[in-house]
Amino acid sequence: MLYYLGLVLALVTVLLAFAIQRSRLGFGLVAIRDDERVAESLGVPAFRYKLAVFTLSGVIAGVSGAVHAVQINFISPASAFGIRVPLFVILMSVIGGRRHWMGPVLGAVLIYAVTDRLTGAGLAEVSQILLAAVLIAATLFLRGGIITRLRERPIPAAAVGVLVLVAQLVAVEGTVITQAAIALLAAMLVLLVPDRVYRAIYRVLGVRRRVSHTY
User: Fold this and answer.
1) What separation, in Å, do the N-terminal and C-terminal C-alpha atoms of the chain show?
2) Which residues does 1 contact at the CB level (< 8 Å), separation at least 6?
């Protein structure tokens, strides 16, 4: 029951993010983020929009916390106000991408898949080091997050991820979740390739490809 509750809540949250980004409220929030004073001068009700999105995010967080409390059967100050949850939220947004509703979803899938597998294997310290390395790499080379590069390079990233996953399924023993986590990391390596190297590869292959630099 808790699994299905969490799944429904996750789907509702993603659908809300999708709907908000394409609504008048979403456009207003983008304008407020870029320059609140200019947005207000153009007629955007900044206070009302910020209050609405703050309330909505609080409701989602409260419901998520209620489901989590039922799952673990207790609440402590360390678990509720520790650094782990806000740090993971920042990691998901930065790595996945803050300017698109799909960015934090991709970041959450990558982070939890990797940390869960490494922690289950008794390598919790390694998972923290790996997450720090991924955060540094994303900050330096993925200024728009995974979603920005993924929209530019969907075929190479998907091809590498699928090839790595199939190779593991054929030649390596292990759970599907572990193999999927490794495939995700392999696909991310393709996204970390600098644009100049990416363009040079396409020139060698004789393929014309326009790489966007918008973030």
Assistant:
1) 40
2) none
